[in-house]
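Researcher: Next entry in the queue.
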Amino acid sequence: MSRRVDTANRTVLALLGLLLFGGGAVGLAASFGVFGDPPPVLPGSARRFEDQQPWFWWAVAGVCLVVALLALRWLLAQLHTGRVTRLDLTRDDRDGRTVVHAGALTEAVEAEAQSLRGVVGASARLVEARGRTLTVAVELADHADVAEVRRTLEDRVVAHAREAVDDPGLPVDIELRPGRRSGSRGLR
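Model: Structure for this entry, 188 residues:
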């Protein structure tokens, strides 16, 4: 998932949690008579409806089950990141197996990107969304030459990554984040 989706999920869930917590606190306080003895919200016939209809609680249980299954589905969708952990580079099993850990590739890409002049930070990940894609996010110092950093990333870092996985057509997304205050690392 992207940062934007993560942030939106956290914000919506936090607001929903606060709303439900507040509603529960008010309901609990009202049940203990903190607000006095309020008049009934529903008329007497509506309050006795569930006693007169034996299917009512089965319908409530069914609706609750559907809501719980939808919530479980959503939760499982949040856990799926699409990250690749291993790359199987085997062309022919008779020649042996070649497996590269994605972490080794992404760490090498990060290290090489961080060694560039004007780069103060880099992160990389390999995802499997409609095919393998290498995503590289680079944080630039204030003084960085954006065009030069981009050109070096495309010509050297991406070329080395593609060569390492023996895939000259590996799609690579590069995100440049300019304007970060530089520390000693960006003054190379």
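Model: The beta strands are 86-88, 99-101, 119-128, 132-141, 172-180.
Researcher: Noted, moving on.
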